[in-house]
Amino acid sequence: MMSSRSDREKQVEKLSAFTISAGMSKLAQESSAHSFLNASRGNPNWINTKARLAFARLVQFGAQESQRTLHRGDLAGYVQQEGIAQRFLDFLQPNDATDQFLQQSYTYLTDTLSMDGDTAIKGLIDGVIGNNYPAPSRSLSVVEPILNHYLEKNLYHGVPLADTTEVFPTEGGTAAIVYLFHALRENHLINPGDKIAINAPIFTPYLEIPTLNDYELVELDLTSTAENHWEIDSRQIAKLADPSIKLFITVNPSNPGSMAMTPQALSELQAAVAKNPNLMIVTDDVYATFADHFQSIYAVLPYNTLLVYSFSKLYGATGWRVGLVAAHDKNVYDQLIHEKSAAIHERMGKRYGRIALHPEEMKFIDRMVADSRSIGLYHTSGLSTPQQVMMALFSLTNLVCGDQPDPYITASKKLINDRYRDFFDALEIPANESPHNTKYYALINIYKLAAIRYDQAFADYLKENYEEIDFGMRLAEMHGTVLMDGTGFGAQAGTLRVSQANLANPDYRVIAKNILKLLDAYHAHYLAAQKDGNH
Ligand SMILES: *Cc1c(COP(=O)(O)O)cnc(C)c1O
């Protein structure tokens, strides 16, 4: 059964982790194993219902309001602002849970955020109806403060930045990443040959973008390792003090490592930035709410940091495409642009001069918005307004909890924690219970597992006799279980990522058992080979 397939496997190893897992998934579906379990997907298998039901109610109210000004069959007019807040409150049913949430949201907007009721409701209703281009294009005025307070509450750990942060809602974290790299390059903030530090292992797109011909950037891995429990260590952080490093890209909490940076790591990073004050930092915090006591790099280094966030994971909303990029109103990006040579300003002036009278004064975040639509279509840029309102509603489900724990976040954490615990329990190795561990993904190293369950000689035999992805391929083929190969994320050889997000709870024990069964089969083969060798 353990025939050599190394040629095929060698070719496969060149592909990205996502492409490999699609291949494994095909093998697993064709497998004769009775269960097909795909634990490679990070897409959650839960959703938030409250915000979605509230969205539907806003659409209903919006249609009713539109008919006030014009009503001919399905044709209706525009929404009027005057008195809309009162009509909205009258529309809400006091005993309906969704309407109660909308009532609480209204109170939050008018009392806590001191918004004018009519302006806020008109903004949200126009947003869900979607009859106007997004204006202002970067972010709707009613949406931005809501997003800012959500980020402040969940990502900054007490640092007040809601009023000094500018947000650009995007089509998921994915678009935020694309727009951001594009604008960094267009504004000569990263140039071919620049040194960029990446905290690997990392979500593959980050590894793949910089190596694209477009960028030709030099990567510097600040590798987090299993020995270090996937946390970035002090010596690695200190490397960032070197001013030749222009940009540091990190996913925090990490994917696939799932660890959040500790307070100590954050202060070490601050110390490094004190020596390299122009360091640009991109932090992707999409898993923030799954860690305990989380604090973003943005909270401690707002001047240097661009923050990427997405509602996809927590709210089960990957199809909505809802994410954002945020920057402080005073930031190193604007400063570095300001310091560019006259020649570069002239070149950039040709680009941005079509849309701004004083292009040299245009902020980096607005350049990003313009670049997201190739400059020429700046006037129709910005995220679809219903998507922006959906983000505001997701945020409000959390904000209306005030100082009380958010039961939805508690429940989502418990769900993945239970799966994680069952998985490691069945795998018979201790789980990492650190509060900085989000447990969204588990990383296991097959060679280490082999050494723990059997011995080092067997682990060495596995390493020497099989291609790195052999285990994952066979797990798919023979047991119908698909994991993601961690090496595609820049992890050490033999690392597999088990997503805790996408399968039913009991499946995680089955996956662990399948891993152990397969390891046992390799071991039996190893013992037989030993015997043969002794003849
Ligand atoms: C899932 C994920 C994203 C993508 O987010 P979308 O909002 O779905 O585009 C971005 N970054 C990381 C680290 C992710 O895991």
Radius of gyration based on Cα positions = 25 Å
- The count of strands amounts to 14
Write the CATH homologous superfamily of the largest domain.
Answer: Type I PLP-dependent aspartate aminotransferase-like (Major domain)
CATH topology of the largest domain: Aspartate Aminotransferase, domain 2
- Main beta-sheet annotation: 7 strands, mixed
Q: Regarding CATH, which class of the largest domain?
A: Alpha Beta
| Bound molecule types | pyridoxal-5'-phosphate
Quick synopsis:
This protein is 48% helix and 11% strand. The protein is an alpha/beta fold and 535 residues long. The mean pLDDT is 92.
Give the secondary structure arrangement, pairings included:
Layout: H1 6-12, H2 17-30, E1 37-38, H3 49-69, E2 71-72, E3 75-76, H4 84-91, H5 97-112, H6 117-129, H7 143-155, E4 165-171, H8 172-186, E5 195-198, H9 204-211, E6 218-221, H10 234-238, E7 245-251, H11 263-275, E8 280-284, H12 297-300, E9 305-310, E10 322-328, H13 332-338, H14 342-352, H15 364-371, H16 385-399, H17 407-427, E11 441-445, H18 446-453, H19 456-465, H20 470-479, E12 481-482, E13 484-485, E14 495-499, H21 507-534
Parallel strand pairs: 1-12, 5-6, 5-7, 7-8, 8-9
Antiparallel strand pairs: 2-3, 4-10, 9-10, 11-14, 13-14
This protein binds pyridoxal-5'-phosphate.
